[in-house]
Design brief:
Helix content: 40-55%
Radius of gyration: 18 Å
Order of helices and strands: EEEEHHHHHEHEHEHHEHEEH
Distance between the termini: 9 Å
CATH topology of the largest domain: Rossmann fold
Bound molecules: magnesium ion
């Protein structure tokens, strides 16, 4: 059990992408590397400058309640759309390149976990907290967690591509809470996205923690950490 003020926590749930795991070395670097291999010289800086195009597509999906990770077909269609829009924005129109990009970003060997993950999980589980994952991800997240040696930490794994429910739907959070046998009030949720992680977790009564690894949300009003190393301390451990 962990205590902040009068709050007593029994479980901590985590988002996966950009919270626990990331494309290796980074999304822009991997994207630039794929393009270079295919004969297009677009540097990671350009990818970083234009990546808001991808975020805009995510925002549209959220605003229109488009579920894109709940089946492999929807996921594939969504990502083809995202990569197609992004490549067009970069001025690249090449048959087959979208598929090459999609395959690279669904290849588990192109993912890694952040260095602060294992020490934080060890500390939290050592303090008796139940740990879980609630993620909008394809079903292969199970195998990625296995590859990274993280599965033993997470007694509860709720993955949109397996469950057919997707954040910010409150039901995906409730499912995780129910499986862990805890209440929302005794649960912490850690994620990197205000709209998909923080707001919906707070709405179901969990204690939300924003992980802001790149310092994009310094003015946020709620609990915010920039590394998982800060999480045990935040929870009073
Ligand atoms: Mg994320």
């Amino acid at each position: 059990m962990a205590i902040i003020g009068q709050m007593r926590f029994e479980a901590v749930f985590f988002d996966a992408g950009e919270t626990l795991v990331h494309p290796h070395p980074t999304f822009p670097d991997l994207f630039a590397e794929i393009l270079r291999r295919e004969g297009h010289d677009v540097g990671p800086e350009t990818i970083r400058e234009r990546i808001h195009v991808v975020f805009d597509r995510f925002k549209l999906a959220a605003d229109t309640n488009e579920l894109w990770t709940t089946t492999p077909e929807k996921s594939r269609r969504f990502w083809y759309d995202v990569y197609g829009i992004f490549l067009a924005d970069l001025g690249i129109a090449e048959e087959g390149l979208i598929d090459t990009v999609y395959r690279a970003f669904t290849d588990r060997s192109n993912y890694a976990m952040f260095d602060d993950v294992v020490p934080a999980l060890e500390k939290l589980s050592g303090a008796g907290l139940k740990l879980g994952v609630v993620s909008n991800f394809e079903e292969w997240l199970e195998r990625l967690l296995d590859d990274l040696g993280l599965t033993p930490f997470f007694g509860v794994r709720v993955i949109s591509g397996v469950e057919g429910l997707e954040k910010p739907d409150p039901r995906i959070f409730r499912l995780a809470i129910e499986r862990a046998g805890v209440t929302a009030e005794a649960s912490v949720y850690v994620g990197d996205n205000p709209e998909f992680d923080v707001e919906p977790a707070a709405a179901v009564g969990m204690f939300p923690v924003l992980i802001d690894r790149r310092g994009r949300f310094a003015d946020t009003s709620g609990a915010r950490i920039t590394s998982l190393g800060e999480l045990p301390g935040l929870l009073g451990l």
